[in-house]
Amino acid sequence: MKVINMQKIKSFVFPALGVLCLGAALTWVFCFTSLGWFWTISWRGYTELTDGVYVNEDFQHSKQDVLKVLEEAEKRVENFWGKLTGKPTIIISDDEKDLCQMGWTGNPALTTTVVFFGAHNYVLISPDGFNVDVAAHELTHAELHRRLYQGRIFSFSQSVPLWFDEGVALQNDWREIYDLEACSAAAEMEATPDLDALETPEQFYVSDPQIRHNNYVASKQEVSGWILEHGMEGFIRLIDQIRIEGDFRSAYYDETW
Ligand SMILES: [Zn+2]
Fold first, then answer.
1. Which of 22, 125, 172, 241 could join 109 in a cystine, given CB atoms 3.0 to 4.6 angstroms apart?
2. Considering only the top CATH level, what class is 46-157?
3. Spans of all domains in the chain
4. Are 255 and 164 in contact (CB under 8 A)?
5. What is the 8-class DSSP label of residue 176?
6. Over residues 15-34, mean pLDDT
């Protein structure tokens, strides 16, 4: 009579199942998530123009044009922050299918931050966002996130409200449409939006373009006002305080600044 050794079977089947599940999970991450795309961008026909800057094959602009735009944007962001604490991975693409795979939803550009043993930023730029203002806007988001989350092992929540994140990024985005003075829609901003009600993406990026635009303009104004009052040194200290204490409101509205 043949005796089936269950112990032996278990010791083979369970590890095999584990490896299979891990393999399936990794395949899913690499093939179907934006993060997987960012991590494997150089295997997907993208060329690294310079350290951490990738463009798709046959990108509509020359290497010189791309580097010129990024150089100018970086200079602007550096003038604002002082020395930058790190460089994000930058992916520029005019392939709509690829852009969608990387989380693009039609906006000119976007910054994705992963907090895992520090902040890792991925800036994705579409053809509409290929200009100094949009690049500087995204690089400012990236630098802010890096400063806010450096030293964290991991985090799934944002430590500042979205209006602040956008307000900071807009300090280096000089498009006239976001300037209250130059903004032709200023008259339509009947009431300044309540910033406390603009903390999450759902609250901030509303579908009504006029309201969304007002949210951007008001956020930019609010952050410029804070910096004007407290200076850039105060602003850098503010970011440090938020990072250390983790409480945006008590830091931002601290009257002892
Ligand atoms: Zn932004």
1. 125
2. alpha beta
3. 46-157, 160-257
4. no
5. G
6. 79
